[in-house]
C-alpha cells in the first residue's frame, strides 16, 4: 500500500456516477432517495429526459430544495447517447468553471440517462474530451434492473442492426441494482440474477425495494479505478464460476501468470479494438509488463482505450495478468490463445524479435521522412545505406520523395530518386497525389527551387501525365500567369512534352 500511495497521488477530480437502466426500473426514484437522505455530500445531478417536457425534473427539484442548495440540477432533452452528448460536455464544462471560480464545491456528479440510452458514449466522454478529463473522472456505471420485467426486455426482438438497450445496460454495468425484489418470488429472483451474471459476471449485484440502497452503493464506488478495486477485492478480475450465458452477450476473463511484452500486447490490443471494438462493450484489466516495476491498469469502452502504469508490484507478489471482456460473440479460447502469444516467453521469441525489427525499421523510416523534409542528404544516404526502404509511406501515403518534392528540397530529391526501389509515381492517400503533384501544389513557395527540383524528378522518370483521384495532372495545379518561375514550371509539367 505504501508503494501504491507513493506512485499514485490522490485523484482530486470530481467523481461521476452514471445511472442507467431501462424505462421504469426506478432510476428517478433512486435519485430522489439519494437527494432526500442526510449524507452531507454536495452533488450535481444531470438529468436527461427523452422528450421536450421533463416530468422527473420537477420531482427532483422539489427534493433538491430539502438539501439546502447542495445539489445542482441540469437538464438536457433528447437521448444522451446520441443527440445531446455534446450538451453533456457543455454542462460539465459549466460546472468545472464554477468549481474553478470557487463558486461551487462538489463531492460528486450523478448523470441519470434516459431509459433508452446506451451508456457507452456517456462513458467515452470521460476519456476523449480533454477538458472533461481534467475536471471529472468516471467513478462507475450503475444499472438499475426491474426484477419483475427485466427478462422480457432482455428477450425483446429488435430490428436487424438495432441493439437491445437493456442488454447493453447490463453489459456495461460496474454495479447492478436489482430493484423491486418484493414483486418476485425467490425462484424468480435467482433466475433473474443468473441471467444477469450470464451477461456480466463481474458487476456486484445489490438487491433493493423501491430503489432504497445506501448512498455508498451509488457514489464513490471507485469501479473505474481498477487499482482501488483490486486493493479492496484482489479476486475482482477472477471468475471460476460457470454461468449460463446470453446467446449474444457474455463476459470472459483471462488470468495468466508471467510478463507480457509491451510491443506484442500493444499490437494485440490494437487488433482487438480495431476488429472487435464494436462488439466489445467493456475491457478492463491489469497487465504485468516485462521490465516494468509497476502494474499497467487499463479500461476500454468499445474502441476508446485508456491505460497507465499505477502502483508497483509488491515484494513477493505474483506478477499475474488479469483481463476482463464483456461483449458480443466473444470467443474465450481465441482470446486466451491470442493473449498467450503476447507473453515474454521463449515460445514467443521469434515474434518478439520480428516486432522489434519492425519497430527499428519504423524508426528508420520515420527518420528518413524527417531527413527528406530537412533536406539532410547526409542523413538520407546513411539511413538508406542501413537498409531503409525509399518507397516506405507514412499513415497518409506520403513517401520521402513526396516530402522532399513538397518542400522542393533539391539535394533530398537527388538522393531519393537514385535510391534502388524508389517509387517515382507513388500515389498518396491525400487524393492520390504523386511527388510531382506535391511539387506543383506549392508552385508559389520557394519559386526559385521548383523548376530545378522538377527537372531532377522528370530526368529520373517521374511521369507528369499521372492523374490524381480528381483526374488532375500536376500541370493543373500551376497558375502559369502568377510569375515567370511559375510559367517555367507549368511548361516543364506539360504532359507529353
Q: What is the end-to-end distance?
A: 76 Å
Any idea what the shape is?
A: elongated
Structural class: alpha/beta
> How can the largest sheet be summarized?
7 strands, parallel
Total of DSSP H or I helical runs spanning 4+ residues? 19
Radius of gyration: 29 Å
Output the strand order for the largest sheet. 3-2-4-1-5-6-7
Number of strands: 12
Average predicted local confidence, pLDDT: 81
Q: What does this protein structure show overall?
A:
α9 links the parallel β6 and β7. This protein has 497 residues and is α/β, with parallel strands linked by helices. The chain is elongated and about 90 Å long. 39% of the residues lie in helices and 18% in strands. It starts with a helix and ends in a 5-residue tail after the last helix. The strands form two sheets. A seven-stranded parallel sheet has the order 3-2-4-1-5-6-7, sandwiched between helices. The protein has a five-stranded antiparallel sheet with strand order 8-12-9-10-11, sandwiched between helices. The N terminus is likely disordered. The chain contains 19 helices and twelve strands. Keywords: ANK repeat, Chaperone, Hydrolase, Nucleotide-binding. This is Cobalamin synthase.
List the helices and strands and how they pair.
Blueprint lengths: L1 H6 L6 E8 L5 H10 L6 E7 L5 H10 L7 E6 L7 H16 L7 E5 L6 H10 L1 H6 E11 L3 H5 L10 H7 L3 E5 L6 H14 L5 E3 L18 H7 L16 E9 L4 H15 L3 E8 L6 E8 L2 E9 L7 E9 L3 H9 L8 H26 L2 H9 L14 H7 L3 H8 L17 H7 L5 H14 L23 H9 L5
Parallel strand pairs: 1-4, 1-5, 2-3, 2-4, 5-6, 6-7
Antiparallel strand pairs: 8-12, 9-10, 9-12, 10-11
Helix pairs in contact: 2-3, 13-14, 13-15, 15-16, 15-17, 16-18, 17-18, 18-19
